[in-house]
Amino acid sequence: MKPLFAVLAFALAAGTAVAAETENRTPHPFGIRDLVMLDRVSDPQLSPGGRYAAFAVRSTDYAANKGVNAVYVLDLAKGGQPVRVVEKGSAARWSADGHSLFYVAAADGVSQLWRVDLQGGKAGLELTASGVPVQVSHGPLDVDGYKLSPDGKSVLLSYAVFTDCADLACTKERLDGREKTKASGTVYDKLFVRHWDTWADSRRSQLYIARFDAEGQLPVEPTLLSRGIDGDVPSKPFGDDSEFAFSPDGQTVYFDARIAGTTEPWSTNFDVYRVPADGSAMPQNLTAGNLAWDAYPVPSPDGTTLYYLAMKEPGFEADRFAIMALDLATGQKREVDPQWDRSAGSLSIAADGKTLYATADDEGQHPLFAIDAADGKVSKLVGEGSVGGYAIAGKRLLLARDDLKRPADLYEAGASGRGLKQVTHFNTARLKGTQVGDFEFFTFKGWNGERVQGYVVKPVGYRRSRRYPVAFIIHGGPQGAMENGWSYRWNPQTYAGQGFAVVTVNFHGSTGYGQAFTDAISGDWGGKPLEDLKLGWQAALDQYKFLDGNRACALGASYGGYMVYWMAGVWNQPWKCLVDHDGVFDARNMYYATEELWFEEKENGGPQFEHPENYERFNPINHVADWRVPMLIVHSGKDFRIPDTQGLGAFTALQRRGIPSKLLHFPDENHWVLKPQNSVQWHETVNAWLKQWTSEP
């Protein structure tokens, strides 16, 4: 680890070099190589007084084919350029006194907790040679997540362990023993045997607590808090520190977990637990009465109320998350926001306890909302675009925001959302000279005459007199949406930069239009959504005369990939080509090959062996005889959500039918394509396919 003054000097020199390189580039349409090299700003954290912003920046080491995470600090009172205080690290959190930052970084190949001190002066915090990073945890296992106590004297830590081990050292010894054996087989006696992109090894993420000693160091062996919990804290594969919290006095810890047992693959029954912070008692289930999803605990500042998010329908991952309030003295629960037909996320609370904050999908945007904790009244603080993370301290609001024309940067505003202004400009130099397409939302009458929304992106260099080929993008989920936000996987601007117009439709099943609209897709994958896509395509052609309907290709991933396979058999007339990424080709086999069975069972009314007719009703494999459109298939070997045999089967069908087709297979990617060089290959392969079939005669 370098001293801070050395890191700062390196950062300034590197920034100057990048600026010089990018500012000299000639103007050009935005493309994939621009996309993969952008800095990704996220995880804003305000110091206790609200003056300083700490945040993460992921840069790209293209030669190493990976991203590199760093931590920056910006003095919001002074403005100017942020300073990189941690060259390689993530998950930065302020100390209780605001004079230090904790973060996670590797030490001898093991992720550990570190601290860097920022010296105070009359002008504010200063970065000096005294700010040398200090390793504070020394356990034998990776720190997977952490949270500091309100007084800064203790920390919650998540480790993946064998639950029958008495200490972390036991888990380490067992893992080392596995490395030494030459037998490679693993015996399983229950699901999950694999999840997302990882094979199970019998470990569980468990929650521990450790206390800092007089030198600010943590003991090697912490105290286990989640005793008896056969589940992961935080949840896998995407859980984080929002799933556990301290009470304001630091005496109690709250966390959520789903008990695994033998039902984990078909259960969404998360519950919220509390446990004494000294580990003196077993965790107590606070939400046992609700068999659906309860999670993300947020204690009130006075310690009397626990807020959390809850769904109502068991076995459903896309139900509406309501904001719940639990009176910790009486045990009574109430829904704070019953009139708000949106699904809340990223819950937090103001210092006075009167206001809750949450983001939510909303009519093609992803805003930040304030919710009155007493009466549930909802007001929108930051509207257009997508809020990816936020922090509130005192009268200052800090957030990471992006939209369809620009990647995330940090913005600040008053606590009411007024006076929003951009405070970081990480990609200004890289984007200088790049050209992106303008966009416009449109609405039309979809299934049953109901209002449906979509948007159109104009190609770079748009001229009113010309007509342009079209990329018709179908979103995944299916309970998701194509929104006014920046993406590093399905970014419309990469197609606009290639000379394509983009059309997308938020069909029935999409989020942000009310829970009934979202629910409408379940049991009807090939019905209402397909009608919306047909009607939306025609509405776009009628409204935007620059769209060339005779030179259009449809593209989709996950559920969007399912829909591409479905359209190949039942609505193939408009398309010159198709692109399918990690789609469902055979609904029957998908049930038995995927891992999260709750999803399949909810969408099809139960297990396949009980309701086979539901799985066949909209099964693309049954319509292969009607396929005729050239198709590019992309699938990944580590995609355990939709295994690559689905893509291989579809490619076999195309080849056997004699339909022009290609298969791009990534053995080292999961449901997403994340490595920079793989992302470039993905886009270049897809773009070449689109151009091949939509080129003018």
Provide an overview of this structure:
With 697 residues, the chain is an alpha+beta fold. It has a domain of 259 residues: Alpha/Beta hydrolase fold, catalytic domain (Rossmann fold, 3-Layer(aba) Sandwich), CATH 3.40.50.1820. An 8-stranded mixed β-sheet has the order 35-36-38-37-39-40-41-42, sandwiched between helices. A 4-stranded antiparallel β-sheet has the order 2-3-4-5. The radius of gyration is 26 Å and the shape is globular.
Given as residue ranges, the uncertain stretches (5+ residues, pLDDT < 50) are 1-24
- Portion in beta strands: 25-35%
Largest sheet: 8 strands, mixed
Shape: globular
Number of helices: 13
* Largest sheet: spatial strand order: 35-36-38-37-39-40-41-42
What is the CATH C level class of one domain, in words?
Alpha Beta
CATH architecture of one domain: 3-Layer(aba) Sandwich
User: Please, what is the oligomeric state?
Assistant: single chain
Radius of gyration from CA coordinates:
26 Å
Task: Let me know the CATH homologous superfamily of one domain.
Answer: Alpha/Beta hydrolase fold, catalytic domain
Structural class: alpha+beta
CATH topology heading of one domain: Rossmann fold
Strands, helices and their partners?
Elements: H1 4-23, E1 28-29, H2 32-36, E2 40-46, E3 52-61, E4 66-75, E5 83-86, E6 90-94, E7 100-107, E8 110-117, E9 119-121, E10 124-126, E11 134-135, E12 145-148, E13 154-161, H3 168-180, E14 194-195, E15 198-199, E16 204-211, E17 223-224, E18 244-246, E19 252-258, E20 270-276, E21 284-285, E22 294-299, E23 305-310, E24 322-327, E25 333-335, E26 345-349, E27 355-359, E28 368-372, E29 378-382, E30 386-393, E31 396-403, E32 406-414, E33 421-422, H4 428-431, E34 434-435, E35 439-445, E36 451-457, E37 468-474, H5 492-496, E38 501-506, H6 515-519, H7 528-543, E39 547-557, H8 559-570, E40 577-581, H9 587-593, H10 597-604, H11 612-617, E41 631-636, H12 645-657, E42 661-666, H13 676-694
Parallel strand pairs: 1-34, 37-38, 37-39, 39-40, 40-41, 41-42
Antiparallel strand pairs: 2-3, 3-4, 4-5, 6-7, 7-8, 8-11, 9-10, 12-13, 13-16, 14-15, 16-17, 18-19, 19-20, 20-21, 22-23, 23-24, 24-25, 26-27, 27-28, 28-29, 30-31, 31-32, 32-33, 35-36, 36-38
